[in-house]
Amino acid sequence: MTEPRFESVVDRQIRLAAERGEFDDLPGAGKPLPNWGGQDDELWWIKDYLRREGLTSEAMLPTSLRLAREVERLPERVRAMLSEQVVREAVADLNERIAAYAHTPSPPYVAVKPVDPDDAVAHWRAAHEQPPAPPEDPPSAAQRRGWRGLLRRRG
Hints:
mainly alpha; 6 helices; 0% strand
């Protein structure tokens, strides 16, 4: 006679589902896990997750470093924005996240200061100023004659 063994609720549900055949036709059944065999990289699953989700490794950074990097990259991001209002909204969003971090900081402790929206707008304006048009040369005699000169030559 076999000894009764303890079976958790989860183990029981899995056993019953397997007995009913609910796992029989799963995609990939009987095949090795992708990227599992023969890899020395212990973090392959994290890299695979980031790739699948369309994230960069920057998503794995602590909040303080992520915010510091955003502040550092803000001037180049501002250049691509379409209006002063969009710049102000982006800076307000960043400053809200900086303030939230400042209320409950976590290591590594990196001092991240809020961004001055007026400075960001000044960078945006400088990037979007139209260079003055070069002075035009005065029109030549042929250009001044225009169509009249062409008509005289043909006739």
